[in-house]
Amino acid sequence: MQLLRVWRLVLSGFVSIMVLSAAEVEVRLHQPPAGQLAAENLWWVDLDNRTQNTYTCYLHGEIWEARRGLVFKANSREFQLPPGSKRLRGRKDVDPLRDIWYARGYEQFAVRTGGLPEGRYQFIVLLEPDLGGDTIEFEVSLPGPPRLVSPRDGMQLPMTQRQPMFSWTPPQPPVSGVRFVVRVVEVLPGQTKEEAMRSNPPWFEKQGNVSSSLRYPASARRFDQARSYAWQVQALDLNGNLIGSSEIWSFSFGEISPRVPLPPPITINRDVRRIDNYYSVQLTIENNSADTFRDLTVFDRSSAFQCLDDARVMHGTSGASYRATFCSTYTDTTGVRSAVRFGWEGLAPGGRMIVRYHLVPVLLGGSHPVTPTIGDSCTISYRIGPDWVLRGFGNRVVPADVADCLQTADYLIVTCPERLFAANPGGMRNDVYRLLSTMAQLAKEKAGVIGYIPSGWANFDLKAQLRPRFKINWGRRLKPNWFSNGYLLLVGQDDIVPSWDYPLEGWGTVRLSDYPYSNLFGDEQCELRVGRIIGINARELAIPIQTSLDVWRGLARYDGSKGLMVSAAEGPYEGFVVEASELAESLRLRVPDVSVVFGEQFITRISMLREGLLIAYGRDRLKLATLALIERVWNGAPLGTIDQVEEVYEMTAQAIQDSAIALACRALPSKDRPEEDTTLWLIRLVEKLYGSFWEGRIRQPQEYMMAFALMLLEYRGVTPSGDTLTRALREAEEVQYARRGQRLPNYDYFNTVEEAATARSSRVRSQAHNRDIIGYCGHGGPGSWAWVLDDCPTSACPAEPLSFGSHRPVVLGFTCSSGDYTESGGHGPVSIARCFLRNGAGIYIGATRVSFCCTNRNLKIETFRRWSTQEYFGDAFVDLKNTCCLREHNWMLETVMYNLYGDPKYRRR
Q1: Model-level pTM greater than 0.70?
Q2: What range defines the domain where residue 31 resides?
Q3: Residue 468 in contact with residue 475, Cβ under 8 Å?
Q4: Which of 406, 424, 584, 609 has a C-alpha 20 to 30 A away from that of 572?
Q5: SS3 of 110, please?
């Protein structure tokens, strides 16, 4: 069978495939629709098996972008390909995909939108193993918004045409399955058509329209003479995601003449009062008519303020039925304007409704100044019988003391609304509204204000607003001592509020660091207490903010009464077990109740052989092999030639052989033990051993040592009793712990490492219940506490379901890379830091790169000394970096790579 040979030529970012010999199977890719690429358009492949063979095969796919190079690759599931033709109709025929990889930023875009960003691409598919392949080129361009055609902007229609025909052009390039939303609103006196469209409830709305025209229905609400209306069309894709919105046009019927002034049927009065760092707004709404108003809705919009969804009906209300009161907030995509919308069931003639809500000032990035205004547009809609009425009010307030309000705040909470809305399209927009309102609630409660950055800002643009050397910036508008004792919360991951790739001499570049935001004076010290809220969508981002609020208000516990130390399953030395014991004793000086979960307690007997006997007999050779491997990786060199890699494997295997021989010798009577443990037996048995191994006598590699020991005893003519090897193992354990002067713990033995991991995970999760501080000693990664808790549902040791009961703990993940929140696996984004936060942890401390065991131990001890539930945790974290890391040890790497995830003002009130 001839193999398909594929040559990839990388020229100016392009990849081309040249098939140099005839393939066994013809592979033909279908071209996706022009200008777009959804997930279902990939993997659309025709296969023509021209042989008489049935192949077990799979598809390997790659996507290359003209400027970025390789941005995606994956393998399909295996399938049978008999002779003849076979058609695969998209991803549903090749799932589940395996070995998925995305370039940075592409996975989140694909998850959110189902497609790829704009660009020129090549899609390569290979039928493996070496059966054929094909490639296609395509360009992704976002479709433009619909454009209005008729009625023209500003057109005055005769009263005989009260059912006008609305028409528009569809998005270009065309989008399959597009649906349109047509919305018409009344334009009130003093409003622009844009303000009316943003603020007023619909006069008419039709969703799901499939054509690009609509005749106004005769059954719809009739248009009135001498009134002006605005209309707009939105285009949605099959998933309900917004493709684009048209411009806003207006039209009217007959002449718009001044209305005859009548006594107002409804009046609204506004009272605004500043309370330290926020404003309280009280609206008094009175029904001056003889009619009962039903289903009242108030929409009150402000500029340069963020509204809270905390509207409450106050004492003094009369004649109102407010059992159905609701409240929600709305914020435009730049964060310039925010509105609160609330309503109730009815208001009787002569009745009065008093409602109070709150706002927090917003600092706005960008070059366009905005005058802070409360109530710059207020509308009230209600129903009298079958008719709906919409009225606008102009009682706006421009506070003169906003500068004084800002100077009471020592807490700046920053995000980018434009990026949040882009990352949470369609129905997820309500989650963004709730997130922004929750941020404002945190600012109100903890002496803070909000900062909204434009989507074009990078990390240095934001830092310029914080540094004291700039005369006009956000930092100078806050509390006078903010530059030395301030707090900063970044809401959103790196794609929402940018982090730093920080170059550090001798260590390379530290990714995802928030340290530069805290270092304002360039002196290596941390002046600001910086935290970051991480999550893959707006709903997840809101959880740790709400957690902090619940603790602050006393709705959740965080009293410093209970702690937990967890050690990992580690290997032969059990250093993490010792560390967890020592740290638990240190923590007990501050916390009365501290439990410990030793990962090594949950283990298999084969693993115990490695842990007990390798220390005594195979340690030296194993250590040499490990050091040889580490040295090559640490120096940035490749692993070397195949011979060098095999040398490392052979040294490790030799250590295992030594341990097996030691176990066999321990099972023999002392008088029968040979003086030489290895030389004689290895010469005689190595050939037999390897032969048996490859013939399948030893079915599982992890049974290697036990099987080797049994073969050695068999060679000596010894038939051990059922528990002989177990006793020998126990002796080895006791010797091991006796050398350390420690008591031998009780072990729980399992048949497989997966069973042990499941039990270990379950024990940690059960012990995490109702704890205030949790520390971890062990290895880690972006998505896991290694072999203890994994943020992956298919793992043998899953972190979820995870519950902390009524407590909301601080979690000290002082371990490798567990603060890297951008990792992706076969099941999507993974992050052990996000996992703890979305399940109710108040704080997570994690490193964004590889860390060191010795320094991690000291950092945990020093954190225990500084930690108090009566103080803000951000203060303890900054003191840890400034005192322990920088002044005492000069640990610059630890200062840069460790981030605080959560509220830096985290504590109980």
Answers
A1: no
A2: 6-140
A3: yes
A4: 584
A5: helix
